[in-house]
């Protein structure tokens, strides 16, 4: 299937210029990956589907959100992909928090090239609440167990932000472990890329 059609199927309608920016980001990612570890080498052959489309599927879940935050951005999934897709939304922006200086440098370089509405913040997540105002959406992918994600994202989620967290096959046990310490509203969205994965849509987070 044509990549542009694939992208629109997953993310909703985007311009061909945006698709081209994502393909340019993919090439930049591959170039930097020869020097620094941006993703597991075994996933690089299927980078477009496994990482880029997997990240892009967040967009229809928050079609009107303009203010986003991605924590532990790593090589840019989902944050960099969301940033490039947000270029089609007037007034949108995303902050990407990544403490690894080399990864942050990659994000800054590649997103500047894409002219994406993104700000890369090279600090620890724990130090970010004072520098990042409460967004509409907080994202994280392959970062930490859900209980730790709640702790990291609590400053924003308890202030009214909504989370969209990618989770794999063990997500149910992670949710169960959170019930003793937290109250939250949850919607499970089945991944359109990986049948064993979900997007956890979380709001109303409060400590018990």
Overall description:
The protein has 208 residues and is an alpha/beta fold. It has a single domain, classed as Vaccinia Virus protein VP39 (Rossmann fold), CATH 3.40.50.150. It is built from seven helices and seven strands; from the N terminus they run αααβαβαββαβαββ. It has helices spanning 3-11, 16-33, 47-56, 79-86, 101-113, 146-157, 171-178; strands spanning 67-71, 93-97, 118-121, 137-140, 162-167, 182-190, 198-207. Helix 5 (101-113) links the parallel strand 2 (93-97) and strand 3. Helix 2 (16-33) packs antiparallel against helix 5. The longest helix has 18 residues, at 16-33. It is globular, with a radius of gyration of 16 Å.
Q: How many strands, what sense, and barrel or not for the largest sheet? A: 7 strands, mixed
**Beta-strand residue fraction:** 15-25%
Q: What is the CA-atom radius of gyration, in angstroms? A: 16 Å
Helix content: 25-40%
| CATH architecture level-2 label | 3-Layer(aba) Sandwich
Number of helices: 7
The CATH superfamily is identified as: Vaccinia Virus protein VP39
In the CATH scheme, what's the topology name? Rossmann fold
Structural class: alpha/beta
Order of helices and strands: HHHEHEHEEHEHEE
> Which CATH class?
Alpha Beta
Number of structural domains: 1
Overall average residue pLDDT: 96
Distance from first to last alpha carbon: 48 Å
Shape call: globular
**Strand order across the biggest sheet?**
3-2-1-4-5-7-6
Number of strands: 7
As residue ranges, the low-confidence spans are none
